[in-house]
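SEVERITY: medium
COMPONENT: batch folding queue
REPORTER: lab tech (J.R.)

DESCRIPTION
The queue accepted two submissions in a row. Attaching both inputs and their returned structure tokens so the on-call engineer can compare them side by side.

ATTACHMENT 1
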Amino acid sequence: MRYSVLTALLAAPALISAAPVQSVGSPAAAKQTVERYYAAIDRGDFRAAYLAWGDGGRASGKSFDRFRQGFAATARSRVVAGAPYGADAGMSQRWIQVPVDVFATLKNGERQHFRGSYTLHRVAEGVGAPASKTRWHIASTKLVAVR
């Protein structure tokens, strides 16, 4: 028994180091950005959600106060993000689409379902941009209500 526990403990670092490390610019990181955005909304951390948008939140097209007020009637939110697609690279710019289904429950109990996609943007590493610009940020969204 001691041998199997010791073997497992010695093997654990190898298992941990074998786990894939996601680059901040990977498609998986883009999907995680959208998932973290909705997790922030759901827990009421509207500052973090706002900052998921490019240009310090201004890419949302709203001031922070208007952004926060847009969720005043929302009790819960959840996103099901699909596989990112349409990766596009131009010079030092990177763009990608993340398809989503968004489910919201309003404070009055009404349920909503939206479908669409988010366009995310980042600057390529190695071009002298600050690290904050090389992570994915939401650039725009197209969502329509599902009836």
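ATTACHMENT 2
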Amino acid sequence: MNDITEARVRTVLNGIVDPCSTVAGVPAGMDDMGMINKVWFDTGTDGTRIGVEITLTDPTCMLLATFVNETRIRLSQLAGVTGVDVTLDHETQWTEDRLAPDYRQRLTEHRTEKRRRLLPLTALNQSRTA
């Protein structure tokens, strides 16, 4: 029985945390970040080859190789996988609307709380008496 499904692939890839989300204070995996465009399978007699198309949150991301390599490593460890193909979508521009709804809510709550904790800023009186 083949238990390699798109949901399983997305769960595995969600374990690859986007460092920018960690810096923002709310770590999120590739699926929560909306980085996975497509998942497809080519099943043969010897097993299943998985294909994944991803979009980076920034086209100049210096961690491109890390995302690609981690995707290949993690998916190739699934039982029955004979190979993994990772392609990058350089055409699609990533935007925040690609975030998973649950993650977007956590991020919004985090940002709201962070703003609430900031001290209110007041303008300094710049007039001086001579």
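NOTES FROM REPORTER
The two ends are 87 Å apart (CA to CA).
No errors were logged for either attachment.
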